Amino acid sequence: MTEAATPISTQPDYSAMFTGLKTVFESERTMSLEWRARQLEALERMMIERERDFLDALKADLGKHALEAWSAEVSYVAGDAAYCRKNLRRWTRRRKVGTPMVAQPGKSWVQPEPLGVVLIIGAWNYPLQLTLAGLAAAIAAGNCAVIKPSELAPETSAVTARLVAEYLDNDGIKVVEGAVPETTALLELPWDHILYTGGGQVGRIVMTAAAKHLTPVTLELGGKSPCIVMPDADLETTAKRIAWGKYSNAGQTCVAPDYVLADAETEEKLVPLLRQTISEMFGDDPQRSDSYGRIVNDRHFERVSAFLDSGEVVIGGETDAATRYIAPTVLAGVAADSPVMQEEIFGPVLPIVRADSLEEAIRFVRAGDKPLAAYIFTRDRKAEERFLEMVAAGNTCINDTMMFMTVHELPFGGVGGSGMGNYSGEYGFRTFSHMKPVMRRGWWPDPDLRYAPYTDRKFKLLRKLR
Fold first, then answer.
1. Phi, psi of 344 (to 5 degrees)
2. How far apart are CA 257 and CA 251, in angstroms?
3. Active-site residue, 84 included
4. Which of 92, 165, 392, 457 sits at a 20 to 30 Å CA gap from 337?
């Protein structure tokens, strides 16, 4: 009788890497403000010195024009690293808080401390921004980190792995390339925090895996970000800002306006202005424009192309499977139950849904999941306030799209189905820190009010001190 062959696992084992990172963290190397500052400076320098490597990779993966790739990815990461470095000492200081009379003599404060070893799982649509900006926050907080770039942007993943190893501390910061087997193996480890950017389906997998170790998670997901256009809006400017937000990166942006809500008269005026803007941005044949990107892969091309049957194509609609090209498209006459309205589009197809009033538009938005972003175009401050009060979203912008991403002082994150937790600037530092509460008590005086035996006199005094 022959001995049964032992099955060979195809799943990688990262336990030794994880143990090594834990050892580095326990050595206190990453807790040093000098180490953090050096790593952030190196990250900024990497983006500047190796700009061409990154721009070429983003062009190969997503067809991004150099200007778009630089502004939304390379410069964004460099600026984020610089901002974290410049504010590092302020963020890491103890923050004094008040101490009530009943706890005197004493002092109380909040003291930030790093979590340990964190995992950052990036997305393919902004493969630098959505991995390295999170890394900057993790470094600022004093953690060791592993970043897992998306395999759907393979050129950017490869150059990221190569250059991070060249510029940053390879003992405390690692890059793991790969696909599902690699991500699955990483998720089995007891991380101190996980930041995941992507879709809700995988977000649930990440959260389930994290729950086994009680690992906290930050999930940046997405959703159908609404764009309400009121009749009083400056429609020429509105059209430009919607088109820029929708068709940048060929619509593959988690905070892109997913659909427009407008009344019939506003829609009639807006459509020709959108057509004019698209022509100004990408020419009469956007397929020939080097300013217009491509869909990331064949699967997503087929998925987004199928949405073209969800309404009347009033702008665009052309496709080319060979180059994964989908023209900047606007759909009219779109019903609420049409396929294009059932999931995040994540492509250059913009449905217009009829809403005859602000209240009708608000009800429509509130009937669905809370989106990652929400937009309104109006001159009416009362309409603006009503929108802000009634539309829950991770991020909100009035009279523009996506521009909140440029403000380091604003947190970025989702709510409900669009995610949980946030980062950006100090909020990223806090995400990857434990804000430890501390109290120091004085030795004297030490009144006996809180000690047994309890008496009516003590009770009365304590009530007065409350």
1. -60, 130
2. 9
3. no
4. 392
Q: Is 78 helix (H, G, I), strand (E, B) or coil?
A: helix
d(CA 168, CA 147): 12
Residues in the chain: 466
Catalytic residue among 84, 144, 227, 254: 254
User: Can you give the three-state secondary structure of 260-294, one letter per residue?
Assistant: EEECHHHHHHHHHHHHHHHHHHHCCCHHHCCCCCC
Q: Measured between alpha carbons, how far is 242 from 434 in angstroms, rounded to an integer?
A: 39
Question: Inter-axis angle of helices 129-140 and 75-92, to 10 degrees?
Answer: 20
* pLDDT at residue 2 greater than cutoff 50: no
Residue 150 CA to residue 128 CA, distance in Å, equals 10
Q: Are 14 and 176 in contact (CB under 8 A)?
A: yes
The pair of structure tokens assigned to 173 is: 């910061």
User: Is 220 tagged catalytic?
Assistant: yes
User: Other C-beta atoms within 10 Å of 35: how many?
Assistant: 16
Q: How far is CA 37 from CA 86, 214, 332, in A?
A: 9, 30, 51
16's tokens: 């030794």
Alpha carbon 42 to chain centroid, angstroms: 23
Looking at residue 334, the DSSP 8-state letter turns out to be -
Q: Which of 44, 68, 73, 220 is catalytic?
A: 220
